Amino acid sequence: MSPNENTQPKSTQQSSRREFIRAAGAATIATQFGATYIPAHAFGKMEKPALAGIGAGGKGRTDIVQSRDAGFDVAALVDIVDATKLKTIGDKRLRSIAEVRSSFPKARYFSDYREMFAELGDKIDAVTVSTPDHHHFHASMMAMQTGKHVYCQKPLTHSIWEARMLANVARETGVKTQMGNQAHANDHMRRCVELIRAGIVGKIEEIHAWTNRPIWPQGFAAPPPKEEVPEGINWEQWVGPAPWIDYSSKIAPFSWRGWWNYGTGALGDMACHIMDMGHWAMMPATPKSVQAEQNGATEFSPPINSKITWKFGANQYSAKDGFRFNWYDGYVNAGFDRDGWKLVKDGNDYNHPSEDVLDGESFKDYGSVVIGEKGKLFFHRSRNKWLVKPSGILDGFDEPDQTIHRAGGDNYGEWMDAITGKVEQGQSWFGQSGPLTETVLLGVIAQRVPDTRLQWDAEKMQIKGRADLQSLIQREYRDGWKIEV
């Protein structure tokens, strides 16, 4: 069965904005970004906000625990896995959910976040969203529409339209938001942003960023055979708003990133981390164009490797003709092994910038280089040191003052600080992370039409002359998952 075929019965639950609000008992919210009314508890100082963790395994476990450590009271957990039946589920990633549940015995447990919102209503102040990409928009939007603060994993959404809507609603409602690109809270990243804006390497001409991922299967041409859904897994809820596909352990819980319908590949997974510093430093308007080279992409799956270039217009930090942002992912000599359902590598050579760009520096599994008219700045998000070349550009350079709030590496704590009023917003709030996600997801679309320069009209959210790609910008949702904004 093709994953593009929706043969699943219609859900009995509808999740349009009006129906959801009516079920939750909250005030009516005007559509099309009209007046919005939210519970009073969403604002002001709260000593211990009540948190619902949507997605309790894998990264969800980290998000819930670190939110608790930041001062939240975990009042609800949501996951498609019934933790009471986990003994019959073999995957250790799923079994970790049982540990999360035992750590928060007083938390209410749900398999459907729509039911959680409807039943708990105003008893929840905030949510973490740690689901596969295709659920990010629905869970985050439903939360914000009822005044709940949101911490959502990266990429912020599965599509460009969804990212734009989340950023708009975050502004409209005033709730406190944060995307889970954790290094955004690192002090050394914030210092490099200040240095680049102060001209340490001059006006910026190009930026390069790279990763060795994917580490999961990508590049397959057909779905795996159907498997019986294990007892305790709500597969209907896992598929959620996305096109239907029959259950397979080769899709979830780990390999969904390699499916166009549910994940966004290596680019979506890692670019919101690795492109973050350069994009933040430049604060660019939306890209003018994007073009991708790739190997191995199919109707179902992102490529085994790719190179992508975005062209941005000029601003105060760039060269007069603007700047280019370059991305590299995947292993050069790799292929998909269907029998083992895995990527098979011949050596460890993965896509990375040229030797001219690297300038004698050994490249690591990931990193970035910012190139200006005077020199280069080499940055690695997990190391608190950076390098500039040539070193002579530091002669006479006046160190800029600190202009960005420091979070000491704790973006959960910074989210809490926004909720309690210590800062206005976390630095990776949706107004900041939404445009970054849009840029990344435009690259995801370019991967699907390689060797073609796509001209982007950001205001209309259209690729000029390519009406056939509009469904990749704003997707249709399965019956029972339509939501109004």
User: What's the number of domains?
Assistant: 2
Which overall shape is indicated by the principal axes computed on the Cα atoms? globular
Write the CATH fold name of the largest domain: Dihydrodipicolinate Reductase, domain 2
Strand residues, percent: 15-25%
Tell me the number of strands. Answer: 17
Tell me what the CATH architecture of the largest domain is. Answer: 2-Layer Sandwich
Low-confidence stretches: 1-44
CATH class of the largest domain: Alpha Beta
**Strand numbers in spatial order across the main sheet:** 15-14-13-7-10-9-8-16-17
Tally of helical runs? 14
What can be said about the biggest beta sheet? 9 strands, mixed
CATH superfamily of the largest domain: Dihydrodipicolinate Reductase, domain 2
Distance between the termini: 32 Å
- Tell me roughly what share of residues is in helical segments: 25-40%
Average predicted confidence as pLDDT: 90
Structure classification: alpha/beta
Measured on Cα atoms, how large is the radius of gyration? 22 Å
Q: Would you summarize the structure shown here?
A:
This protein is α/β, with parallel strands linked by helices. The protein has 14 helices and 17 strands.
Which secondary structure elements does this structure contain, and how are they paired or packed?
Blueprint: H1 17-24, E1 50-54, H2 59-70, E2 73-78, H3 92-103, E3 108-110, H4 113-120, E4 126-129, H5 136-145, E5 149-153, H6 160-173, E6 177-180, H7 187-197, E7 204-211, H8 235-239, H9 265-274, H10 276-282, E8 289-295, E9 305-312, E10 323-330, E11 334-337, E12 342-345, H11 355-358, E13 366-372, E14 376-379, E15 387-389, H12 411-419, H13 430-448, E16 454-457, E17 462-463, H14 470-473
Parallel strand pairs: 1-2, 1-4, 2-3, 4-5, 5-6, 7-10
Antiparallel strand pairs: 7-13, 8-9, 8-16, 9-10, 11-12, 13-14, 14-15, 16-17
